[in-house]
Amino acid sequence: MKKIIDTQIIENAETAKNIYRLTVKANMEAQPGQFVQVRLPSNEFTLRRPFGIAAINNEQITMFYRVVGSGTEFLTTCKVGDNINLIAPLGNGFDLDGEKILLVGGGMGLAPLLFAAYKSKSADIFMGGRNSGEVIFWQDEFKNCTDKIFVMTDDGSYGSKGFVTDFLPDNLKSTSYDKILVCGPEIMMRKVAAIAKKFNIPCQVSLEKRMACGLGVCLSCSIDTTNGRKKICKDGPIFNAEEVFYV
Ligand code: FES
């Protein structure tokens, strides 16, 4: 059940270049995959920003954001103790049923997968990023909640050189998974979905689109699916891969 929450910032720290961990006080429950609409504490920014939930512990929600524009630039200046307003939790969550799950993520898409890793029985993670700076802090975040961590970077500065999709088929030949959960750039998710289909493994993806309301009202996030028009913010952001990528 979503709530409007007036709360305070507990942590707003840069964990890698231009990537911040934001933790706020909030007494609420959520499923991995659900998200939060954050209102920045300034009248200059009217639209809320959607952030995936990376963890909920001890009445605190943790999210990660990358500095990509004036809103997130402003957010970096907010201090511990500053007031902030959230609507949460929003959207649906991943289906975590299964003994062994493979998580596949790239960039900021790793945030909701972190929450999924903590809540699943057993998970491995395939993570990708542009360079070492983009993946090393994620590796630290995932090390306590996953069995095996596979790291790839585009430039080869850390882990294996290449994309997650280059290495995924070999891993699927040697390890069996009940399902694959994916979050990251759309091109990566489409490729992972196609590989999952080839190996006959159910696959869920987390879609992202610019959201104006985040509440199912404005239709700005509507997409075509095999089951008709759907709103990412309300019917998603988690969809079965074949429903949205027609794999
Ligand atoms: Fe408004 Fe989804 S963002 S309906």
In short:
With 247 residues, this protein is of the alpha/beta class. The chain contains 7 helices and 16 strands.
List the main descriptive attributes of the protein structure presented here.
binds FE2/S2 (inorganic) cluster, seven-stranded antiparallel beta sheet, alpha/beta, seven-stranded mixed beta sheet, globular
Blueprint (SSEs and pairs):
Elements: E1 3-16, E2 19-25, E3 35-39, E4 49-52, E5 55-57, E6 60-66, H1 70-75, E7 83-90, E8 101-106, H2 110-119, E9 123-129, H3 132-142, E10 149-153, E11 160-161, H4 164-174, E12 179-183, H5 186-198, E13 203-206, E14 222-225, E15 228-231, H6 232-235, E16 238-240, H7 241-245
Parallel strand pairs: 8-9, 8-12, 9-10, 10-11, 12-13
Antiparallel strand pairs: 1-2, 1-7, 2-6, 3-4, 3-7, 5-6, 13-16, 14-15
Helix pairs in contact: 4-5
Bound molecules: FE2/S2 (inorganic) cluster (FES).
Radius of gyration from CA coordinates: 17 Å
Give the DSSP E fraction (strand runs of 2 or more residues). 35-45%
Q: How are strands sequenced across the largest beta sheet?
A: 4-3-7-1-2-6-5
Which ligands accompany this protein?
FE2/S2 (inorganic) cluster
Shape: globular
Q: Helix proportion of residues, in percent?
A: 10-25%
What is the average per-residue confidence, as pLDDT, rounded to a whole number? 95
Order of helices and strands: EEEEEEHEEHEHEEHEHEEEHEH
What does this structure look like?
The protein has 247 residues and is of the alpha/beta class. It has helices spanning 70-75, 110-119, 132-142, 164-174, 186-198, 232-235, 241-245; strands spanning 3-16, 19-25, 35-39, 49-52, 55-57, 60-66, 83-90, 101-106, 123-129, 149-153, 160-161, 179-183, 203-206, 222-225, 228-231, 238-240. Helix 4 runs parallel beside helix 5. The radius of gyration is 17 Å and the shape is globular. The model has no long low-confidence stretch (mean pLDDT 95). Bound molecules: FE2/S2 (inorganic) cluster (FES).
